[in-house]
Specification:
Blueprint: E1 4-10, E2 15-18, E3 24-37, E4 43-53, H1 54-63, E5 69-82, E6 88-101
Parallel strand pairs: 4-6
Antiparallel strand pairs: 1-3, 1-5, 2-3, 3-4, 5-6
Length: 157
């Protein structure tokens, strides 16, 4: 079984290209923290190349940038090619089946340019600091309507 799950931050903006038959493909690098610290007490990260295809590739390009946090589920793929000097080179990368956006490029502290998105993402809430919601200290059913009474005697089972 070849299955990979990763959560990390983009180390660079995604690059979008199109194949000869016009299929979109995006590539980017993901920094994933290790579960342990080194001898100096610092947490290290691995930098993993990610490849995304089709509509998801276009979404990655449009909505993610350096510093964006994502969850990836996919598979490891190894391929080889001959470089310009005729040397055989091997590449290991993760081909993403799913990319979950865990934050927009605007919510990242490491954003590369700090400019605002033209298109809203599901994580944009306008100028608000937090989305509107119910105050947890108040009654969440206060404006719900009239109260109803239910007893166990009325249940059909």
């Amino acid at each position: 079984m070849n299955k990979v799950f990763l959560i990390g931050r983009l180390t660079r903006d995604p690059e979008l290209r199109y194949t000869g038959n016009n299929t979109p493909v995006a590539t980017f690098s993901l920094a994933v923290n290790r579960n342990f610290s080194n001898q100096q007490g610092e947490r290290e990260a691995d930098f993993i190349n990610i490849v995304v295809w089709r509509k998801q590739a276009e979404n990655v390009k449009n909505y993610l940038s350096q510093g964006s946090q994502v969850a990836i589920d996919g598979r490891i793929q190894t391929r080889s090619y001959d470089d310009k000097d005729g040397q055989k080179r091997y590449v290991t990368e993760v081909v993403a089946d799913n990319v979950e956006f865990l934050g927009s490029k605007n919510s990242s502290n490491n954003s590369s340019n700090g400019s605002h998105n033209e298109e809203p993402t599901p994580y944009d809430f306008g100028d608000e600091k937090e989305p509107k919601g119910t105050d947890v200290d108040s009654n969440p059913f206060a404006d719900f309507g009239s109260s109803i009474e239910i007893s166990d005697d009325e249940l059909p089972f």
